[in-house]
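PROTEIN DESIGN WORKSHEET
SECTION A - STRUCTURE
LENGTH: 304
TOKENS:
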């Protein structure tokens, strides 16, 4: 569905995307992850055919965005990071106007709206004003709007940012159902659990380059340990304490508020730490996540 070879994007002298290769097959859920400024948004804008390619080769449905932009855009749906809904219109009208932008016949648009409102569980709010909706409802309406043209590819930029856990899970369920229906999903996200739940495969980008690619489980297996022991000490103590426990770990990360000790047996690490007379204010043993992969590959967290 999407293929890129040595894809590049420059803004003057600044090269935001520095030659990446990506292949996204039909029906996949594919993620672009990375810290802010990694080049994700520039890549997504090129895929959406709203930003021209500076260099390399990009094909969507086998078509060149430079010469077939309108044809490609007619077959994709885009859910932007911010909800750009028309607050002067109600829920039903937002979908109707957007459907008419695609040139869909009035009868088809009305039928499609009924389907989508049922799909995103907003049927009872069809005549409600946008301002009267909760954050989760607005997000579901934005997703419904992006599906009005029955897209083969749905592009989602931070689909659940700012939502409470319950609302996020509702959206995850709807996106999973779309994937089951054969829609190809391409998303960026700052939530590690979201990436692990939704994506079959993902790329980690940093400074405009792909630094790793694989399934979430493959990336965790290849770039981290099975468990992580989190140790919290007093403010400013973590750097000094790191040298006292470094022999207990495969790797150590010193964060401002905690020490991350990577090992295949986190409980054994805690026992050894206490045996050395060290007394953390708080401790936690957890499995490794994609956040740990980010720290390993980029030296930064997603929100840096």
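SECTION B - SEQUENCE
RESIDUE ASSIGNMENT:
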């Amino acid at each position: 569905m999407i293929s890129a070879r040595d894809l590049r994007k420059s803004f003057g002298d600044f090269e935001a995307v520095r030659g990446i290769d990506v292949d996204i097959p039909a029906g996949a859920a594919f993620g672009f992850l990375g810290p802010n400024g990694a080049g994700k948004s520039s890549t997504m804008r090129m895929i959406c055919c709203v930003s021209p390619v500076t260099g390399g080769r990009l094909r969507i449905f086998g078509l060149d965005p430079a010469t077939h932009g309108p044809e490609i855009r007619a077959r994709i749906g885009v859910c932007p990071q911010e909800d750009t809904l028309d607050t002067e219109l109600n829920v039903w009208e937002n979908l109707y106007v957007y459907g008419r932008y695609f040139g869909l016949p009035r009868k088809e648009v009305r039928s499609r709206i009924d389907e989508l409102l049922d799909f995103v569980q907003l049927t009872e709010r069809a005549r409600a004003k946008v301002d009267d909706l909760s954050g989760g409802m607005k997000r579901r309406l934005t997703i419904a709007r992006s599906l009005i043209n029955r897209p083969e590819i749905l592009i989602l930029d931070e689909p659940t940012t700012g939502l409470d856990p319950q609302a996020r899970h509702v959206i995850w369920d709807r996106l999973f159902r779309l994937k089951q229906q054969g829609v190809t999903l391409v998303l960026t996200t700052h939530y590690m659990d979201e990436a692990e739940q939704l994506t079959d495969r993902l790329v980690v980008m940093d400074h405009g380059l792909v630094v790793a690619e694989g399934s979430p489980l493959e990336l965790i297996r290849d770039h981290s340990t099975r468990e992580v022991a989190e140790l919290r000490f007093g403010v400013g103590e973590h750097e000094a304490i790191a040298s006292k426990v470094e022999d207990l770990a495969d790797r150590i990360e010193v964060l401002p508020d905690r020490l991350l000790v990577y090992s295949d047996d986190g409980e054994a690490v805690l026992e050894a730490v206490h045996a050395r007379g060290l007394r953390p204010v708080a401790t936690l043993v957890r499995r490794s996540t994609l956040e740990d992969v980010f720290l390993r590959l980029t030296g930064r967290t997603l929100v840096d």
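SECTION C - NOTES
The longest strand covers residues 14-24.
The chain has eleven helices and 13 strands.
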